Amino acid sequence: MNATRNTALEAWMREHGYSSNSLADAVNKALEQLTGRTGGLDGSSVRDWKAGRVRWPKAATRRALEAVTGMPPTVLGFVPRGRAPSTPVAPQEDLDMKRRNLIGGFAVAATAAAAPGTTGPRRIGMSDVGRLQQRFAEVIASDHRYGGQLGIEQRAAALADEALNLQNAGSATQRVRSSLYGCAASFRSSAMWAAIDGRRYGDAKAHMREAQALAEMSGDQAIKFRIWSHAGAMYRHVGRPGEAFAANDVARNLHITRRDPTFASLGLARQAAIHGAAQDRMGTHRALDQAQDALQRVDPHGFRPVWLLAFYDQAELDSLALSAFLTLGDYPTAEFHAHRCLAALRPHMRRSHAITTTRLAHAQLAQGDFEAAAGTAMKVPTDAATQHPRVSRMLQEFGAALRARAPRSSAAQSWTEHTRHVWKATT
C-alpha cells in the first residue's frame, strides 16, 4: 500500500519557513535539551515524515517535535501505530472551515441524540474528547501566533459550549464526562487569556467565572492551575497586586505544584512578576531564584498538558523576569533578561517575541540609549504592532516617551517616520 503524505506537517513547515534540514536541526537541539544526547536526525528523516514513510516517530522525537512546534504529533499529521490514517489536518487558511464543520457536526449529533426514534442514544466516548483536544491544540497554536484577538476568544468560547453540549448528546462514563468538563474549562480558559491579552478585562472576568466552575466539575488540577494563574496575571495587568497575589497563591497551593516542579516554577515566576508590580525588590529576587531552582528539577520525560508544553521554559521565565525588573526600574537587569529570552524563544512564540522586543526597547530607552531603543522597536512585526492590543499600547507609550526625552533626536525622527509607514501600510 502506498504511503499517505503528511500534508499537515508540510503545511506547518511552509507556514513557519522550515526546510527539511532546518527542522531536523531544530528537533535535534530539542532532543539534546530533553535527553542530554544529541539527536541524529537529518533532512532525509524529515522527508520520510512528510512522505508518510514514517508515520509515528519514536517517543523522544515526538516530544522534541512538540517542543519545537508547540503542537502534539497527531495535530501535525502523525498517526499512532495500529491506527488507520485519518483526514490530515488542514493548513492554517482552512482551519476556520474545519472548525465550523466540527461545530456543525456536534450540533447535528446532539439533535439526533435528542430526537425520538428507534435507534438508541449516541454513546459519547474518549474519541469525542480526543477531537476536542485537537481543537484545543489549534487554539493554543493560534494564540501563540496572533495573541489577544477577539476571533480567538470567540472561537474558544464557542468550542467550550460545544464541549458542554456533548454532555447532553448521549450516554457517557463518568471518566468521559469529567474529561468533557475539562475540555470545556480548557477552552474557556483560552477565551479568558485571549481577552486578558487583548485588554478586554470585563470579558476576561466573565470567562474566568465560567472556567472556574467547569474546572471544579472536571477535577483537573492542571486546568485549575491554568485558570487561577491567568487570574493572577489579569489582576497584575490591571494594577491590583493584592488580588494578583491571592489568585496566584490559589494556583501555587494546588498539589500539582508539589508533584511537578514545572507548575511550581511557573507559579513562582508569575509571583516574581507580581512582586515587581508591587515594587518589592527582595520578593522579586527570591521568587525568581526559587522559580529557576524548580525549573532545573523538571523531569524532561514527564507528561504535561499541551498548553504548558507550548510555552513554559527558560525563555518564558526570563520573559517574566523582564516584566518584573522593568516595573521595578532596574533597566540593565531587565535588558539582560530580554536578550536571554529572545535568544531562547521557540519559533512558534511569535506573540511573545513581539512583546519581549517591545519591552527590550523600553529598557534601552530608559537607559538613554535612544538609537538602539528605536532600532529595537522597529523590529516588531507590523501585524503585532498594529493588531495586538498590548503590543500596540506599549509601542504608543514608547513613542511618547522617546519624543518626550529626545524630541529632536534622529531616533525620534526615525521612529515617527517608521510608524507613519507602518500605519499607512495597514490602511
Spell out the blueprint of helices and strands.
Elements (H helix, E strand, L loop, with lengths): L6 H10 L3 H16 L7 H9 L7 H11 L22 H23 L7 E2 L2 H20 L4 H18 L2 E2 L2 H24 L3 H18 L2 H17 L3 H12 L3 H4 L1 H17 L3 H16 L9 H4 L4 H15 L2 H14 L5 H17 L3 H8 L4 H6 L1 H17 L4 H16 L2
Parallel strand pairs: 1-2
Question: What overall geometry do the principal axes of the alpha carbons give?
Answer: globular
Count of DSSP E strands? Answer: 2
Number of helices: 22
What is the helix/strand order? HHHHHEHHEHHHHHHHHHHHHHHH
Q: Which structural category fits the helices and strands? A: mainly alpha
Uncertain stretches: 86-119
Strand content: under 5%
**Residues in helices, as a percent range:** over 70%
Ends distance = 52 Å
> From the alpha-carbon coordinates, what is the Rg to the nearest angstrom?
23 Å
Instruction: Output the strand order for the largest sheet.
Output: 1-2
Biggest β-sheet: count, sense, barrel?
Answer: 2 strands, parallel
Provide the residue-averaged pLDDT.
Answer: 86
Describe the protein.
With about 425 residues, the chain is an all-alpha fold. The protein is about 75% helix and about 0% strand. The protein contains 22 helices and two strands. It has helices at about 5-15, 20-35, 45-50, 60-70, 90-115, 125-145, 150-165, 175-195, 200-220, 220-235, 240-250, 255-260, 260-275, 280-295, 305-310, 315-330, 330-345, 350-365, 370-375, 380-385, 390-405, 410-425; strands at about 120-125, 170. The chain has a two-stranded parallel ribbon. Helix 2 crosses helix 3. The longest helix has 24 residues, at about 175-195. The radius of gyration is 23 Å and the shape is globular. It starts with 6 loop residues before the first helix and ends with a helix.
